[in-house]
Amino acid sequence: MSASINYGFILTLSSIKRNLFSIGGPILVILGTIGSILSFSIFIQKHLRKNPCSIYFMAYNIASIGVIYGGLLPPVLELGYSIDYSIYNLDICRLRLYAAVSVGCICPSYLILASIDRVFITSPKAHMRRLSSRRYAAIFIITGTLFWLLCSIPIGVFAAILNPAPNYLICLTQTNTYTRTISYGSLAKEILVPSMMVFFGVWAVKNIHHMKLVRIAPTGSLHTTQRKTGTPMIQAKDRQLVVLMLINIIIYVPFSCVLPIVLLYTQLTASQSESIETLQSQDFLFRVATYCVYVPYCINSYAHLFMSKTFRKELKDIILTGRLFPCCA
Questions:
Q1: Do the domain assignments include residue 123?
Q2: What is the pTM of this model?
């Protein structure tokens, strides 16, 4: 039976997977780190950080650093360089899984909140526009962060160092009802998060499309210029933030759709008898899909630079003045 195994095919997949993480992994880590820092330095500028959407983007950039080093770096070291300390220490194993899951949920939730904020600020209804404020932004960010940190605790509790084969250790959650629930929950999350981003993004665009004035006063101001229709104006700055939010969504959705497709395929074929080649192919697809998940967090800032003239101008001003973090100056 062993003669029927296509070892060349298996070795090819293994080589591609290793090169993807050993070469492509560090590239993403470096690009993502630099991009997140530069993007954060732009949104923290005094004239921008007063906008609630900028607060969501700052939180997103901070969380992106967590995703890069808590979620991306461990598989890069493991698959690209055969370095995995989590299989020798249970506490490290638990911390690794907890960090990867928690920041993986926290970061996209900030994008959803940013898209909801754009729906608020572009709404023709005054009571909804009032929800777009720094106070509510802080409340939503803190609440969402605590929610995901608490919900992710069982991941660390049920983490274990398993030995599925001789001389092979792996840091993974133990097989039980909760783990199966988490698997289906992860699949649901990978489907719902992009769907919510698209839904609120389209809603914000429709609000702008139906607006007949450009907002010139901040939310809550008594001096808002209006037409006969009574529709409030939206500031050019808010329009730019809508554009940046849409860029994030356009990048996030296609890359995030790869993983649920692979997970769904794996779930549907889990009960079938599979060959070694099929199992290796599934593992390869899962690893590639996992790699794709982290791409948006590493390239969003560069997409902003490429697509937004205002973003480029802000970065140029920061570089010329030498003030990356004005709040600390």
A1: yes
A2: 0.86
